[in-house]
UniProtKB/TrEMBL annotation:
Name the UniProt record assigns to this protein: 3-phosphoshikimate 1-carboxyvinyltransferase
One GO cellular component term noted in the UniProt record for this chain: cytoplasm
Binding site for 3-phosphoshikimate: K22, S23, R27, S167, Q169, D315, K342
Organism encoding this protein: Desulfosporosinus metallidurans
Upper lineage: Bacteria, Bacillati, Bacillota, Clostridia, Eubacteriales
Record's subunit section: Monomer.
Length: 428
């Protein structure tokens, strides 16, 4: 197997500005395109997923310009969106596809949306069913569950939904459709998922009522262009929090990381494992809290996690599993069956990948059981095209005994284009 070889290191030192939050970047582009007036986004994530969202917007007739990580969107409202002359390609991005469907459900024209092989295998009925109930017409493979999906939107009627999974993509798709529906749309989730859509909509001048796991919007509201400053992505910071905890020596500082409480499950889990992580300079900008994170090495111990914590750290479970392999004692992760429908089946791919590197991981129907061994041999692992796995295996290599050869490391570009060069700067 050929790949990028990641050598073990003994210390890390320095400051890392992790790139902009992926979830917030998607929403800033999308809401900017839906709004009237100019939206200026700073620290936009240049990951492939967010670039897919920008490209789809261009196909819908939304004018935007980008210079580096700054994006200017000239919003003319959703009435100005036009029927695209070709298929919308969401690439690898579940967020692009599901939020775009929600935003487009009230448009009086047809769109076809597709993506790469991974995205075409991810379930879509979770959004197509509610959007159909609201009045959109959607057809797709296997009864509308898989892309390519063709939707012809139209008049929508607000509804009450009780979702069975805590998914911010589902919640956001319904809310965005609800903005163009008659009457009230209400979503109740089984546990609170990330609430960036609700926060940002308020910033764009829309009234959104939310209490715990219930969100309500009324149709007919108008979005006004805004300035959005995107905080660093805690899901990207997570890789360095684990590296800084497991490495022998050194200290890492991660300034300007988003610490929205619906995203900070990784901090709670790592701290419960004994990690030495501190939050400094906590502030709030554009409705999103942010902080500087400082991490120092610590001996971790195993924990049991599940329940409402899971949606708060769902994308961090691959790197958390790496941390658990180095802990003292057993870690059990439950209630995380959603991992099976991410870019890969992350329960299976994390278990297989880590075991190939010398860890002791058992696959559970809804999670993982990991016997911590305080070290990891290393070896060969593939990202299988999944960005979170690419970065998890690279971190495993840095703290392993023999290093790790990571096949298809470039998958990291989906959410963290400069990942390896940043590592080279801090790791010795
Ligand atoms: O709304 C979002 O920005 C996201 C929601 C989560 O997915 P689900 O909504 O499927 O849980 C997460 O895994 C994904 O990376 C980003
Ligand atoms: C699951 C992820 O993203 P998406 O659902 O947007 O593809 C992720 O970033 O880990």
């Amino acid at each position: 197997m050929r790949g990028v070889f990641i050598n073990p290191v003994s210390s890390v030192e320095g400051e890392i500005q992790v790139p902009g939050d992926k979830s917030i970047s998607h929403r800033a582009a999308l809401l900017g395109g839906m709004a009237h007036g100019e939206t200026h986004v700073s620290n936009f994530l240049l990951g492939q997923d967010c670039l897919s969202t920008l490209r789809c917007l261009k196909q819908l007739g939304v004018h935007w310009e980008r210079q580096g990580t700054e994006v200017w969107i000239r919003g003319e409202g959703m009435e100005a969106w036009q029927e695209p002359s070709d298929v919308l390609d969401a690439g690898n991005s579940g967020t692009t596809s599901r939020l775009m469907l929600g935003a487009l459900a009230g448009s009086p024209f047809a769109v076809t949306l597709t993506g790469d092989a991974s995205l075409r295998s991810r379930p879509m009925r979770r959004v197509t069913d509610p959007l159909k109930q609201m009045g959109a017409q959607i057809m797709g493979r296997k009864g509308g569950d898989f892309a390519p999906l063709t939707m012809s939107g139209g008049h929508l009627q607000g509804q009450v939904f009780r979702t069975t999974v805590a998914s911010a993509q589902v919640k956001s798709a319904i809310i965005l459709a609800g903005l163009r529906a008659s009457g009230e749309t209400r979503v109740e989730e089984p546990a609170l998922s990330r609430d960036h859509t609700e926060r940002m909509l308020r910033g764009f001048g829309v009234e959104v009522q939310s209490e715990e796991t219930v969100v309500k919007v009324h149709g007919g509201g108008c979005l006004t262009g805004q300035k959005v400053s995107v905080p660093g992505d805690i899901s990207s910071a997570a890789f360095f929090l684990v590296l800084g905890s497991l490495v022998g020596r050194g200290e890492m500082i991660l300034p300007n990381v988003g610490v929205n409480p619906t995203r900070t499950g990784i901090l709670d889990a790592l701290k419960a494992m004994g990690a030495d992580i501190e939050l400094l300079n906590v502030s709030e900008i554009c409705g999103e809290p942010r902080a500087t994170l400082r991490v120092r090495p610590a001996q971790l111990k195993g924990i049991e996690i599940g329940g409402t914590l899971i949606p708060r750290l769902i994308d961090e479970i691959p790197i958390l599993a790496v941390a658990a392999s180095f802990a003292e004692g057993e870690t059990v992760i439950r209630d995380a069956a959603e991992l099976r429908v991410k870019e890969t089946d992350r329960i299976r791919t994390v278990a297989v990948g880590l075991n190939a590197l010398g860890a002791k991981v058992e696959e559970l129907p809804d999670g993982l059981r990991i016997q911590g061994q305080t070290s990891l041999r290393g070896g060969q692992a593939s990202s299988l095209g999944d960005h979170r796995l690419a970065m998890a295996w690279a971190i495993a290599g840095l703290v392993s005994k023999e290093g790790v050869s990571v096949e298809n490391m470039e998958a990291a570009d989906v959410s963290y284009p400069d990942f390896l060069s940043v590592i080279k700067k801090v790791a010795q």
